[in-house]
C-alpha cells in the first residue's frame, strides 16, 4: 500500500466537483424531502380519511423497502412508462420521495406530541385554526422535531452514496473510480470514508448548535 | 428510656452551594417510630437517604447500634471512609421503603420479595419463596404473589415493597414519604401496615407528609426546617399547647390535611 | 412475471434473510462488547470504542462494504465476498446496537438500583439480575428497528458481488428487460420480510411486557 499525493493533486478539481454534486444532491434532496414530508403529514392530519390512508400506504412502502430498489425502479424502470430521467434528476427525485416518507412520520409524531391542552388553551382564548397552527403548533413542534430531523438529514447525506450505483457522479463513484484507475483501492476508499465521516461529524455538531439555540421553545414539563 | 438505635451527630450536607443539612443532631430510639416532618426542601428526604447511605454526608457521623455508617470521624474532624464490608453489615440491619416503590418490574411480587433471600442470604429457591410467601401473606397479598408490579395497584405495590424489606428481618425500617405517590384511597392500606409494624415494636424512621399519622404513631417527632432540626420531642409537646411560630405556619398549610384533628 | 422467475427471487430473498440475521446476531454480540468498553474507566479501552461507534455510524454503509471488500484481500485475507459482506454489515450494525444498548442501560431507573443496594445485592448481581433484563427490554424496540434497517441495507451487498435479492433482480433484468416488475417484486419481498420482523418484534414485546397491557 502506498499513498501518492501527486496523483490526488492532479485529480483535485474532479474530486471537488464530486463533493459539490454530493452536497447538492443532499441539500436539494433534504429540502424536497422535508417539504414533501411536511405536506404529507399535514394532509394526513387535517385531510380526509381516504387520503390519509392512501398516503399511509406510500409511507409504509417507501420506509419498508431499500432505497437502492427504489432508485432502480425509477432510473431503470422509468423509461418503460415514459419517465426518462438522467442520473442526477433521478437521484434527486428518489432521495426526496424516500426521505419524505420518513419526514412525514417525524412531523406526524411532532403534531401528536404537542399536548392537546395547549391547543385547547389557544381555542379558549379565541385563536382561529390558522393562528393556532402558526403560533402554537409549529413553534412547539419545531423543538420536538429538530433532533429527529437532524438525524434524518445525516441519514440522507449518507444515502447519497447509494446513488453512485445509478451513476450519479458524486463522491463515492468518483473517488472509487480514481482508486481503480491508480490501483489504489484501499487508500482511496479510506479517503472517501474520512470525507463522509468528517461531513457527518460537522453536521452533527451544527445540529447540536441549532438545537441549543432553539431550546427556549422547549416544552415545559408540568 | 430505650437505647439509641441511631445516633446522628453534626451531620452536614451540601448540594453544590445549597446547604441542605446543617449540623443535624438526632437520636432514634430503639423500638419506637420517629417521624420526621417539615416543609418541602427542608432536607427530610436527604436526611433519611443519608441514614441509608444513598447520599454521603459531607461531615458529621451516623452510628447505627454503635457501628459507624460509611465514615468514621475522629475528634479532630478527620474523616476516614470505612470499607464496603462495614457498610454491608450496617445495611443488613436496615430496610428501606421508597416513595416510588422501586419494585423490579421484571419480577413478580414473589420474585421481588425472595430475590435478596436467594442472592444475598444464599437461601435455596424453595426456602426463599417460602419465606417470601409468609411475608406476603402478612401484608395481605398472598394471592397476588405471582402478579407483576404493573398488575398491582399503587397501594399493593408499596405493600410488596414493605414485605421485600421486611423479608430480610431488619432491625430498623426507613420510610421515605411512603404514601406520597399514592391516591388518597390507597394510602390507608399502607399506613395500616406501618401502624401494625410500629405496634409490633419495630424501630422506624418515617419521613412523611401525613401529619395526623405521624402524631398518632410517632413516639418522637422531629420538625425539620431549612436543614435544621427546629423541634424534636413527643407529639404532645410539639403539636399541643403553645406552638412554635414556624410550626404554626407549617400546620396552617396542612389544616385541611388532617392537622385539624390535633387541635 | 412467471412463477418460475418469482421463485428465483424468493430463493434469493432467503439468502438476504440469512445474511441479515447472521449480521444482526454477530453485530449484537460485538455491540455488547463495544458498549461495555465505552463504559470502561480506562481511556485506552473507552476511546477506541467511541471511535468505532463514531466511524461506523458516520460513514455510509456502501463505502464501508467497499472498503472491507477491498481491504481484506489487500492485507492477505482472502475470503468469499459473502463473508466480507457479513463482516461489513455486522460491524455497521454493531455500532448502532452499541448506542442502543448504551441508551437502554442508561434508562434503567436509578431507584431500582438503590432498592437493590438496600437489600444488599452486589454490583455484579445487580448487573445480571436487574440491569441487564430491564435494559434488554428497553432496547427491544430499537433492536427490532435495527433488524429491519439491516434487512434493507443488505441490498447494498449486491454491489460487492453477493447474489442476494437485489442482485438476483438485477441479473434477471439483464436478460428479461422487465425492470419495473422485477424490482417491484423484489421490493415487495423486502417489504413482506420487514413486516414479519415487525410482527415478531411485537410478539417479543408482548412476551416481555411483565403484566403491562
Please describe what this structure looks like.
The complex is a heterotrimer of chains A (about 220), B (about 260) and C (about 210). In chain A, about 80% of the residues lie in helices and about 0% in strands. Chain A has about 220 residues and is an all-alpha fold. Chain A has a single domain, classed as MetI-like (MetI-like fold, Orthogonal Bundle). Chain A is flat and about 70 Å long. In chain B, the strands form 3 sheets. Chain B has a 6-stranded mixed β-sheet, sandwiched between helices. Chain B has a 4-stranded antiparallel β-sheet with strand order 2-1-4-5, with helices on one face. Chain B has a two-stranded antiparallel ribbon with strand order 6-7. Chain B has about 260 residues and is α/β, with parallel strands linked by helices. The radius of gyration of chain B is 19 Å and the shape is globular. Chain C is about 80% helix and about 0% strand. Chain C is built from 8 helices and no strands. Chain C has helices at about 5-40, 45-60, 60-75, 80-105, 110-120, 125-155, 165-175, 180-205. Chain C has a single domain (about 5-205), classed as MetI-like (MetI-like fold, Orthogonal Bundle), CATH 1.10.3720.
Short description:
The complex is a heterotrimer of chains A (222), B (263) and C (213). Chain A has 222 residues and is an all-alpha fold.
Number of strands of chain C: 0
What is the CATH H-level superfamily of chain C?
A: MetI-like
Question: Any idea what the shape of chain A is?
Answer: flat
Number of helices of chain C: 8
Number of domains of chain A: 1
User: End-to-end span of chain C in angstroms?
Assistant: 44 Å
As a percent range, the share of helical residues of chain A equals over 70%
Which structural class is indicated by helix and strand composition of chain A?
Answer: mainly alpha
**What share of residues of chain C is helical?**
over 70%
Largest beta-sheet details of chain A = none
The topology string of helices and strands of chain A comes to HHHHHHHHH
CATH architecture of chain A: Orthogonal Bundle
Quickly count the domains of chain C: 1
